[in-house]
Each structure stands twice: as structure tokens, then as C-alpha cells.
């Protein structure tokens, strides 16, 4: 197979995974059928099976795609020196937790998370650990953590607090705008310090 043919297959697979993401988030893993995905992707069911031999393989590809996208978006947000720290934090947390806000039925969320954790759990936990560590570094490097030191609150405390707030806001927000509003308050508190 030529490089051009492999590239075309990869692009098609990415489009299929993008279509599948919407279907899985809307219907959950159990209720999603390959027919649903094929219709959403605009291809035949047989064409879908040429790229993904089963629903489980497709689901794994979707989770991998989401995790990779999340990692690169978080990294980009945290490295944006053109933005104030508060905006970088908001972008990073939205990239980490906001991806599914308003897109997944809460009744399906547990099922999807459990299924993803069954094969990607260690990677997901490592991503969380690294994310919090990156937030700690940002808060230390920019002096925001120092504003809280005399109150006995460390950069790790602040980063973990923001992470927990973001995780909770993800579940409690019906829309991305609602999630952003909740996180905006939390980030403003952390970045303003005790003043």
C-alpha cells in the first residue's frame, strides 16, 4: 500500500472516529450500533467494518483519539505565554474536563467512563496526575502559589482544588457555558490569592 493510500485511510478513519464520538456520547456504548455510526459517518455498514472490525475496536479508537486530543490541547493551553494565567487555566481545564460537557447524557456517562477505564484506566490516571503537576508548576512559576503560602495552602492544594472543582462542574453543568462560568469563579479565586 502506498503512503498516499495509507494517508487516505487514516483520514477516513479519523472522520469515522469523529462521527462515532457523537453517537457514543449521545447513546452510550451498549445502545450504539455500527449502523448508527455508519449513518452518522455517511458510509455503508460494510465500509465501516473495513476500517473497524467491531464496535469495541471503534470505541477504543474513539477513547484514544479523545485522550490524545485532550493531552495536546492541555499542553497548548498551558504553554500560551500570550494569555494571562487565569485564561490559560480556564483553557486547560476546559480541554481536560469540558470535552464532553453538554454532549453526553448523564445516564450514559458512567457506562462510557467504566468501559474506557477498563482498558485506558492507567493512562487516564497518569494523565490526571501529570495535569495536576503541570498546574502546580504553572502556579509556582507565575507566583500565584506564593500568594497562598502564608495561609498554609500549597500549589498542590490549589491545583487539586481546581481539578476537583472542574470535575464536579463537568457533571453538574448542562452546557459548556455553564461549566465555563463555574470554572471562571474558581480560577479567579485561585489567581487572585488572599488579597
Brief synopsis:
With 195 residues, the chain is mainly α. The chain is built from nine helices and no strands.
What does this structure look like?
By secondary structure, this protein is mainly α. The chain has one domain (3-192): Tetracycline Repressor, domain 2 (Orthogonal Bundle), CATH 1.10.357.10. The chain is 80% helix and 0% strand. It contains nine helices and no strands. Helix 4 runs antiparallel to helix 5. The longest helix is centred in the middle third of the chain and has 36 residues, at 106-141. It is elongated, with a radius of gyration of 19 Å. The N and C termini lie far apart (63 Å).
**Structural class computed from helices and strand pairing:** mainly alpha
Range of helix content: over 70%
Distance between the termini: 63 Å
Name of the CATH homologous superfamily: Tetracycline Repressor, domain 2
Series of H and E elements:
HHHHHHHHH
For this structure, what is the CATH class?
A: Mainly Alpha
Number of domains: 1
User: What multimeric state do the chains show?
Assistant: single chain
- According to CATH, the fold-level topology is Tetracycline Repressor, domain 2
Mean pLDDT: 91
> How many β strands by DSSP?
0
The second-level CATH architecture is Orthogonal Bundle
Share in β-strands:
under 5%
Amino acid at each position: 500500500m502506498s503512503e498516499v493510500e495509507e494517508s487516505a485511510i487514516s483520514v477516513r478513519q479519523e472522520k469515522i472516529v469523529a462521527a462515532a464520538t457523537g453517537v457514543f456520547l449521545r447513546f452510550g456504548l451498549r445502545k450504539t450500533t455500527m449502523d448508527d455510526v455508519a449513518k452518522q459517518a455517511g458510509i455503508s455498514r460494510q465500509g465501516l467494518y473495513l476500517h473497524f472490525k467491531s464496535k469495541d475496536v471503534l470505541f477504543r479508537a474513539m477513547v484514544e483519539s479523545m485522550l490524545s486530543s485532550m493531552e495536546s490541547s492541555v499542553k497548548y493551553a498551558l504553554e500560551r505565554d500570550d494569555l494571562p494565567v487565569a485564561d490559560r487555566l480556564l483553557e486547560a481545564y476546559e480541554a481536560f474536563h469540558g470535552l464532553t460537557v453538554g454532549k453526553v447524557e448523564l445516564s450514559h456517562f458512567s457506562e462510557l467512563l467504566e468501559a474506557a477505564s477498563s482498558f485506558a484506566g492507567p493512562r487516564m490516571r497518569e494523565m490526571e496526575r501529570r495535569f495536576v503537576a503541570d498546574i502546580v508548576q504553572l502556579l509556582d512559576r507565575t507566583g500565584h502559589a506564593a500568594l497562598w503560602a502564608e495561609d498554609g495552602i500549597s500549589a498542590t492544594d490549589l491545583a487539586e482544588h481546581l481539578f476537583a472543582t472542574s470535575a464536579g462542574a463537568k457533571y453538574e453543568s448542562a452546557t459548556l457555558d455553564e461549566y465555563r462560568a463555574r470554572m471562571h469563579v474558581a480560577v479567579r479565586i485561585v489567581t487572585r490569592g488572599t488579597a
